Amino acid sequence: MSDDDLDALALLHDPVRRSLYEAVAGRGGEVGRAEAAEAAGVSRTLAGHHLDRLVEAGLLESGFRAPERKGPGSGRPAKVYRRAAAELSVSLPPREYATLGAVLAEVVEELGAEERAEAAARRAGERLGRRVAEPAGSASSGGDPAEAVLRERGYEPYAEDGRLRMRNCPFHALAMEQPLLVCSMNLALCQGLLAGLGDDPDRARLDPRPGECCVTLSKTNGD
Amino acid sequence: MHLAELNLAHLRAPIDSAELAEFVALLEPINDLADRSPGFVWRLKESEEDPTATVQHEYGDHLLVNFSVWESLDALWNYVYRSDHLAVLRRRREWFLRMAEPAMVMWWIPEGTIPTLAEGMARLRRLRTEGPGPEAFTYKDAYDSSEAASLPAAAAARK
């Protein structure tokens, strides 16, 4: 565990900073100071101060967006913020699964065992889905249970053009090392999850796009 | 600097066989996608008229050659792994044999130049015999263009 990571994450204890971080991260792109301030319900000045603290800590990155109108009176480029690419993690006691995951992924590739890995991911997804489906009786809670589970697991789903897209890849670092294996396993995991929930596994398919998770879901009929 | 990329695939059967028919049918749409992708610069084509014609070469039978130039590592990555190309890649075992040696190599080239296939094959040999370096690398051991640019010219010529 890095002390810097702990210090950075501790900044989010402040409710204003927390809501500013969420406002920026939840947009998936660049967010201006005014927009973030409005989302967090604070003044622009206060928002600017806290946003810059989050940049210093490495939680956000900042840049400048050219004004939309050109010429005199169009003003200065606006400062914008986006979520930093760096991953911060704190685990107590210290735990480190990424290295082992990378080693195992390499073994799968050496063995040419991708199909077995996908089958295992599908089973893992099914177990996960069944565990969620059992206690809640899910149907009564309203909404899309699959979306709720994916949100809980950090995929950050959002609706676009009649599909659910995922802003975040929970396996990002591994997916950069072994994209083909990890994206295929992720799809299998999501399909298994749907099956475990008693839903249609074919709702999930690959539709990769730069900077996002590779899996998308069709919307449920109820939506 | 631009990024040159060469990859080889060992076909399970002759390119005109029934086994490869679905792959051949995908050549046109997937190459179109590459040509339209942000950061695409150039790729080696056998024919301007026939989109299903694969590159002819003297490096062995059943060997499919993909040879292209991109503006950056990210541009190539986003095409290969973050587009509909990924779905085609997932089916590779249906059409290609596993290769024991590295089958893909990248290196940096000055903008406006087009490398030869012979150079690409030499880079791949270098990767296979000496491992990754700024002159011949993979995504797992990538080098950015500044590392390649600072190399003495002699290093690039030593193949």
In short:
Chain A has 223 residues and is of the alpha+beta class. Chain A has nine helices and seven strands, in the order ααβααββαααββααββ. Chain A has a four-stranded antiparallel beta sheet.
Instruction: Name the shape of chain B in a single word.
Output: globular
Count of separate DSSP helical elements of chain A? 9
**Biggest interface, which chains?**
A-B, 13 and 14 residues
Number of helices of chain B: 7
CATH architecture of chain B: 2-Layer Sandwich
Which sequence of strands runs across the widest sheet of chain A? 4-5-7-6
Relative helix content of chain B: 25-40%
The separation of the N and C termini of chain B measures 20 Å
Briefly note the structural class of the backbone of chain A: alpha+beta
Q: What is the count of structural domains of chain B?
A: 1
Per CATH, the class of chain B reads: Alpha Beta
**Could you state the order of secondary-structure elements of chain A as H and E?**
HHEHHEEHHHEEHHEE
Produce the secondary structure layout.
The complex is a heterodimer of chains A (223) and B (159).
Chain A: H1 3-10, H2 15-25, E1 31-32, H3 33-40, H4 44-56, E2 60-65, E3 78-83, H5 98-111, H6 114-136, H7 145-152, E4 157-160, E5 163-166, H8 172-177, H9 179-196, E6 204-206, E7 215-218
Antiparallel strand pairs in A: 1-3, 2-3, 4-5, 5-7, 6-7
Chain B: E1 2-11, H1 21-36, E2 40-43, E3 63-70, H2 73-81, H3 85-90, H4 92-95, E4 96-97, E5 104-109, H5 117-130, H6 145-149, H7 153-157
Antiparallel strand pairs in B: 1-3, 1-4, 1-5, 2-3
Output the keywords.
A: alpha+beta; Arc Repressor Mutant, subunit A; 2 domains; four-stranded antiparallel sheet; 13% strand; B: 159 residues; alpha+beta; Alpha-Beta Plaits; five-stranded antiparallel sheet; 37% helix; globular; disordered C terminus
3D structure, described in words:
The complex is a heterodimer of chains A (223) and B (159). Chain A folds into two domains: 3-83, Winged helix-like DNA-binding domain superfamily/Winged helix DNA-binding domain (Arc Repressor Mutant, subunit A, Orthogonal Bundle), CATH 1.10.10; 98-218. Chain A is 49% helix and 13% strand. Chain A has nine helices and seven strands; from the N terminus they run H-H-E-H-H-E-E-H-H-H-E-E-H-H-E-E. The longest helix of chain A is centred in the middle third of the chain and has 23 residues, at 114-136. Chain B has 159 residues and is α+β, with helices and mostly antiparallel strands. Chain B has a single domain (2-157), classed as Alpha-Beta Plaits (2-Layer Sandwich), CATH 3.30.70.100. Chain B is globular and about 45 Å long. Residues 153-159 of chain B have low confidence and may be disordered. Classes of the chains: A alpha+beta (223), B alpha+beta (159). Chain A binds chain B through residues 112, 114, 177, 179-180, 183-184, 206, 208-211, 214, and chain B through 74, 78, 80-84, 86-87, 89-90, 93, 98, 140.
